[in-house]
Design goal:
Low-confidence stretches: none
Number of domains: 1
Largest sheet: 2 strands, parallel
Number of helices: 4
Shape: globular
Helix content: 25-40%
Structural class: mainly alpha
Order of helices and strands: HHEEHH
Mean pLDDT: 87
Number of strands: 2
Distance between the termini: 14 Å
Radius of gyration: 14 Å
Strand order of the largest sheet: 1-2
């Protein structure tokens, strides 16, 4: 997740590219952050991948707006795309994330 105003990036290792994995990771982050979550994450933008299908339900739990980018509109998620590029310097596209420990991902 990338917070647009501060450019802070949170990277988490999740078990798979599923709705359940994404939802559980976000809910865990909300629980860890408590009341601070909505103060740090005023909004975030997801792409249209099926793994983000239930993300808008988060608006019912916290005071954070969830937006979805238009298909093929990378400019609507510019900060996120920039951070993805930086992450790919350490974790190349196509490389299994299973090869990396949680500690290694935190270091990135």
């Amino acid at each position: 997740m990338t917070e647009r105003m501060t450019r802070k990036e949170i990277i988490r290792k999740i078990p798979g590219k599923t709705v359940e994995s994404v939802q559980n990771a976000i809910l865990k982050l909300i629980n860890e952050a408590g009341d601070c979550f909505s103060k740090v994450f005023k909004s975030f933008t997801c792409d249209n991948g099926s793994e983000f299908a239930e993300t808008s339900s988060i608006e019912q739990i916290v005071d954070t707006k969830v937006y979805f980018a238009h298909p093929y509109a990378l400019g609507e998620r510019g900060t996120n795309e920039r951070h993805n590029g930086l992450i790919r310097r350490f974790i190349p596209k196509g490389t299994s994330i299973n090869e990396y420990s949680i500690k290694a991902i935190a270091k990135v």
